[in-house]
Amino acid sequence: MSILHGNDARVYLDGYDISAVMNKISPKSEVDLHKHAVMDSSGGYHHYRGLAKDEVSFEALGDDGDLKTVLDALWAAAPGAQLMIAYKSLAGKPGYAADEVKIKTQDWSAVSTDLNKIKANFVTEDIPFDECLILMAKATQVAGGNGASLDNAAESTNGLTAYMQVFEITGGGTLTVSLEHSVNGSTGWDPLAVAFAAATGRTTERILNTGTIRRYLRASWTLTAGTATFAIMVKRT
Predict the structure, then answer these.
(1) Could you please report the per-residue DSSP string of 51-99?
(2) Closest Cα to residue 130, out of 58, 232, 199?
């Protein structure tokens, strides 16, 4: 698994947008599949977690303040930090997300005064990368509202995984985000059972919803004061 990191790609790590200093990123998926018969006698491919871990490496150029604070904090993070990689900052575009990545190695070298070259390698903890679609591109919201609907062409029956990164909340506001689904994309919007926790500052979260997800999906949010900057990715399973 690899992506091209161009002018339109975005990289979000633990509630920080580090896109501006990135010049290379390389996700690597090592999902092991094993064929076997399950208890109901039907065959299938199943991923045994723990047999292999996904990795991602990147290179960046920046001053001491661009990444050092973020990476130093991640050394001590437990169980890890959420990572989003988006092809474009547009709803409906593909991307990858992992909820718990930890630093495996990092290397710093001086290029010139106040300019450093940074190389780092991350490994996922237990849960591999999800191949997602962007439900909400990163944007600053000034009030509550609803996002554009994402058309899946048909309903799905195995739930979904959703990732959210909140980059900043100003003015002492509280952001509450839920996911809603609809049969036709215009009426009958109902919330999914599991919503994101209320946020008052920079944070990340991964949630799981089970069961049938209707054809159309959107984000809905309330904001009590100030502004909120956040992004959401989803994967139907």
Answers:
(1) S---EEEEEEEE-HHHHHHHHHHHHT-SS-EEEEEESSSSTT-EEEEEE
(2) 232
- Positive or negative, the CA dihedral 48, 237, 166, 180 is negative
2.60.120.1110, 3.20.20.140, 3.40.640.10, 3.40.50.2000: which CATH number matches 134-236? 2.60.120.1110
Distance, CA of 94 to CA of 117 (rounded, Å): 28
pLDDT by residue (tens digit) across 41-58? 444 444 454 455 788 888
**Contact at 8 Å (CB) between 159 and 211?**
yes
pLDDT band at 36 (very low <50, low <70, confident <90, very high): very low
CATH class of 10-36+46-128: mainly beta
Distance CA 237, CA 107 (A): 36
Helix, strand, coil shares of the chain as percentages rounded to 5?
5, 55, 40
Name the residue ranges covered by the structural domains of the chain: 10-36+46-128, 134-236
- pTM: predicted TM-score of the whole model, two decimal places: 0.85
The rounded distance, in Å, linking the Cα atoms of 181 and 172 is 30
For residues 169 and 137, what is the distance between their CA atoms, to the nearest angstrom?
A: 16
Residues, the chain: 237
CA distances 41 to 32, 36, 38, 45, Å, are 21, 9, 5, 13
